[in-house]
Specification:
The protein is built from six helices and 16 strands. It has helices at 2-16, 31-45, 57-65, 103-111, 143-149, 182-190; strands at 24-27, 51-54, 69-70, 79-84, 88-89, 95-96, 113-121, 134-138, 155-156, 158-159, 162-163, 171-175, 195-198, 200-201, 207-212, 215-220. The longest helix has 15 residues, at 2-16. α1 (2-16) crosses α2 (31-45). The chain has two domains: 2-126 and 202-218, Rossmann fold (3-Layer(aba) Sandwich), CATH 3.40.50.1360; 134-196, Alpha-Beta Plaits, CATH 3.30.70. The protein is globular and about 50 Å long. By secondary structure, it is α/β, with parallel strands linked by helices. The chain binds ribose-5-phosphate (R5P). Ribose-5-phosphate binds next to α2 and α4. Belongs to the ribose 5-phosphate isomerase family. Keywords: Isomerase. This is Ribose-5-phosphate isomerase A. It is an enzyme of class 5 (isomerase).
């Protein structure tokens, strides 16, 4: 665990090095993104001038706590650079996100970003995304119908004996999909009324910093268009 956390911090440091004066930075959510916020806060204390938007209330609170000025994303048309974690990432820069429940805000912020970078310790790096639940944010009004539509293995996420509620006031269904064709699965999910978001990030990620054995490697989507 210590080793994984050291990897998260190392990857975060590599990505934070991309942040320069004047940027509007998108802050991800989760234990890896928390390192980014901590490191950015330290740089802000040393004089770095940035503003930020956060992909969750938790990240906004952490950022404000370390002196980063957080804007309301509702007022922000474009973001320069977003740095976020992932549950799985592969060489195609396909990612599964949302174990922390923030994937809908994470995706809209990523989509509004000129550059989106995923940071991860080696445990997240996989040959091909698939062996992890895909979180799907649903309209609670349609819960039973959507659980049925999402198929076998779809499980309503619970917390403290009640359905988990996202920052958006919705619920999450964790799904097990055959991801032989991730784009087809994403398109299918995008077409289901009442599905408000999901954790398949297939086009949003521009680069990934992966830490393993004290070394960070970078994967870059150099030639593919977004
Ligand atoms: O909803 C949560 C996010 O997608 C996280 O970025 C993802 O779950 C990775 O979180 P962690 O860095 O805590 O493993």
């Amino acid at each position: 665990m210590m080793d994984r956390d050291a990897g998260k911090a190392l990857a975060a440091g590599a990505a934070v090095a991309e942040v320069t004066d004047g940027m509007l930075v998108g802050l991800g959510t989760g234990s890896t993104a928390a390192h980014v916020i901590r490191l950015l806060g330290a740089r802000v204390a040393q004089g770095l001038r940035i503003t930020a938007v956060a992909t969750s209330r938790a990240s906004a609170a952490q950022a404000e706590g370390v002196g980063i000025r957080v804007l309301d994303f509702a007022d922000v048309p474009r973001v320069d650079l977003t740095i976020d974690g992932a549950d799985q990432i592969d060489a195609r820069l396909f990612a599964i996100k949302g174990a922390g429940g923030a994937m809908l805000r994470e995706k809209v912020v990523a989509a509004a970003s000129d550059r989106m970078v995923v940071i991860a310790d080696r445990s997240k790096r996989v040959a091909a995304i698939g062996d992890a639940p895909v979180p799907v944010e649903i309209l609670p009004f349609a819960r039973a119908a959507l659980l049925a539509a999402l198929g076998e293995g779809a499980v309503l996420r619970m917390r403290d004996g009640a359905p988990y509620v996202t920052d958006n006031g919705n619920q999450i269904v964790d799904c097990r999909f055959d991801l032989a064709d991730p784009a087809a699965t994403a398109a299918w999910l995008d077409g289901i009324p009442g599905v408000l978001g999901h954790g398949l990030f297939l086009t949003e990620v521009d680069a990934a910093y992966i830490a393993a054995d004290g070394v960070v490697s970078r994967l870059e989507r150099a030639t593919m268009s977004r």
